[in-house]
Design a protein that fits this description.
Length: 153
Protein backbone atom coordinates (compact mmCIF):
# COMPACT_ATOMS: atom_id res chain seq x y z
CA UNK A 1 0.00 0.00 0.00
CA UNK A 2 1.34 3.42 -0.96
CA UNK A 3 1.50 6.17 1.59
CA UNK A 4 0.10 9.52 0.57
CA UNK A 5 2.58 12.32 0.50
CA UNK A 6 1.45 15.26 2.62
CA UNK A 7 2.66 18.79 2.23
CA UNK A 8 3.09 20.66 5.45
CA UNK A 9 3.47 24.37 5.84
CA UNK A 10 6.20 25.14 8.31
CA UNK A 11 7.19 28.48 9.81
CA UNK A 12 10.62 29.09 11.25
CA UNK A 13 12.15 32.37 12.36
CA UNK A 14 15.75 33.34 12.98
CA UNK A 15 16.53 36.58 14.82
CA UNK A 16 19.89 38.18 14.03
CA UNK A 17 20.89 40.64 16.74
CA UNK A 18 23.52 43.30 16.14
CA UNK A 19 24.58 45.63 18.94
CA UNK A 20 26.77 48.57 18.05
CA UNK A 21 28.43 50.01 21.14
CA UNK A 22 29.31 53.68 21.56
CA UNK A 23 33.01 52.87 21.08
CA UNK A 24 32.32 51.22 17.69
CA UNK A 25 32.50 47.58 18.82
CA UNK A 26 29.88 45.35 17.21
CA UNK A 27 28.41 42.30 18.96
CA UNK A 28 26.32 39.72 17.08
CA UNK A 29 23.95 37.02 18.33
CA UNK A 30 21.51 34.58 16.73
CA UNK A 31 18.25 33.26 18.18
CA UNK A 32 15.43 31.00 17.04
CA UNK A 33 11.93 31.77 18.24
CA UNK A 34 8.39 30.47 18.44
CA UNK A 35 5.47 31.42 16.19
CA UNK A 36 2.67 31.71 18.77
CA UNK A 37 -0.91 30.46 18.37
CA UNK A 38 -2.38 33.92 17.75
CA UNK A 39 0.26 34.42 15.05
CA UNK A 40 -0.73 31.20 13.30
CA UNK A 41 -4.42 32.15 13.57
CA UNK A 42 -3.62 35.60 12.13
CA UNK A 43 -1.81 34.00 9.18
CA UNK A 44 -4.69 31.58 8.51
CA UNK A 45 -7.16 34.49 8.56
CA UNK A 46 -4.92 36.38 6.13
CA UNK A 47 -5.38 33.58 3.60
CA UNK A 48 -9.19 33.89 3.66
CA UNK A 49 -9.89 37.51 4.57
CA UNK A 50 -8.27 40.60 6.00
CA UNK A 51 -7.36 39.92 9.66
CA UNK A 52 -6.81 43.61 10.33
CA UNK A 53 -3.50 45.38 10.50
CA UNK A 54 -0.36 43.90 8.98
CA UNK A 55 2.54 42.89 11.21
CA UNK A 56 4.69 46.03 11.39
CA UNK A 57 6.24 46.35 14.88
CA UNK A 58 8.95 44.74 16.96
CA UNK A 59 8.86 45.05 20.74
CA UNK A 60 11.56 44.30 23.30
CA UNK A 61 11.13 43.51 26.96
CA UNK A 62 12.44 42.02 30.17
CA UNK A 63 10.48 38.76 30.48
CA UNK A 64 12.28 35.46 30.74
CA UNK A 65 9.70 32.67 30.71
CA UNK A 66 10.17 30.36 27.73
CA UNK A 67 7.76 31.14 24.88
CA UNK A 68 4.62 29.01 24.47
CA UNK A 69 2.04 28.89 21.69
CA UNK A 70 -0.44 30.47 24.14
CA UNK A 71 1.57 33.71 24.57
CA UNK A 72 -0.33 36.83 23.53
CA UNK A 73 2.04 39.56 24.76
CA UNK A 74 5.55 40.10 26.08
CA UNK A 75 5.89 39.69 29.83
CA UNK A 76 7.68 42.98 30.42
CA UNK A 77 7.57 45.15 27.31
CA UNK A 78 9.74 48.28 27.52
CA UNK A 79 9.81 49.57 23.92
CA UNK A 80 8.13 48.97 20.54
CA UNK A 81 9.26 50.36 17.16
CA UNK A 82 8.01 50.16 13.59
CA UNK A 83 9.91 47.98 11.14
CA UNK A 84 12.63 50.00 9.37
CA UNK A 85 12.39 47.57 6.44
CA UNK A 86 9.83 44.89 5.61
CA UNK A 87 10.44 42.67 2.55
CA UNK A 88 9.93 39.14 1.29
CA UNK A 89 11.74 37.03 -1.26
CA UNK A 90 11.91 33.29 -2.04
CA UNK A 91 9.48 32.36 0.78
CA UNK A 92 11.42 34.35 3.43
CA UNK A 93 9.89 37.37 5.15
CA UNK A 94 12.64 39.73 6.37
CA UNK A 95 12.15 42.64 8.75
CA UNK A 96 14.64 44.99 10.36
CA UNK A 97 13.87 47.09 13.44
CA UNK A 98 16.27 49.39 15.27
CA UNK A 99 16.40 50.67 18.84
CA UNK A 100 18.71 53.30 20.35
CA UNK A 101 19.59 53.26 24.03
CA UNK A 102 18.78 56.77 25.26
CA UNK A 103 16.46 57.70 22.37
CA UNK A 104 14.15 54.76 23.16
CA UNK A 105 14.61 55.04 26.96
CA UNK A 106 16.02 51.52 27.26
CA UNK A 107 19.44 52.14 28.78
CA UNK A 108 20.74 49.88 31.55
CA UNK A 109 17.80 47.50 31.01
CA UNK A 110 18.55 43.83 30.39
CA UNK A 111 16.51 43.05 27.27
CA UNK A 112 15.58 39.37 27.43
CA UNK A 113 12.55 39.00 25.17
CA UNK A 114 11.23 40.30 21.87
CA UNK A 115 8.15 39.87 19.71
CA UNK A 116 6.45 40.91 16.48
CA UNK A 117 3.05 42.68 16.57
CA UNK A 118 0.46 44.25 14.26
CA UNK A 119 -0.15 47.40 16.35
CA UNK A 120 1.89 50.09 18.09
CA UNK A 121 0.35 49.00 21.43
CA UNK A 122 -1.43 45.75 22.23
CA UNK A 123 -2.45 44.02 19.01
CA UNK A 124 -1.80 40.47 17.88
CA UNK A 125 1.60 38.94 18.61
CA UNK A 126 2.98 36.83 15.75
CA UNK A 127 6.21 35.50 17.26
CA UNK A 128 8.21 35.70 20.49
CA UNK A 129 11.73 34.88 21.62
CA UNK A 130 13.55 34.89 24.92
CA UNK A 131 17.25 35.01 25.69
CA UNK A 132 19.94 37.48 26.66
CA UNK A 133 19.51 39.99 23.85
CA UNK A 134 21.35 43.07 25.14
CA UNK A 135 21.78 45.73 27.79
CA UNK A 136 22.21 49.06 26.04
CA UNK A 137 24.14 52.14 27.12
CA UNK A 138 23.08 55.70 26.24
CA UNK A 139 24.73 55.73 22.81
CA UNK A 140 24.38 52.03 21.97
CA UNK A 141 22.34 50.89 18.99
CA UNK A 142 20.36 47.64 18.61
CA UNK A 143 19.41 46.20 15.20
CA UNK A 144 17.05 43.21 15.06
CA UNK A 145 16.79 41.38 11.73
CA UNK A 146 14.10 38.71 11.64
CA UNK A 147 14.10 36.10 8.88
CA UNK A 148 10.84 34.11 8.91
CA UNK A 149 10.83 31.19 6.49
CA UNK A 150 7.45 29.97 5.26
CA UNK A 151 7.76 26.37 4.10
CA UNK A 152 10.83 24.21 3.66
CA UNK A 153 12.09 25.58 0.33
Amino acid sequence: MRKKKRDRLSLKAIWLVEITRADGRVERKRFENLIVGDGMDWLAQYLTSNPGSAMAYTAVGTGGTDPTVNDTALEGEVARNTFATNTSSNNVWITVTTFAGAADSITSVALTEAGVFNADTGGTMFQRLTGTIATLGNSDFLKLTIETTVGSK
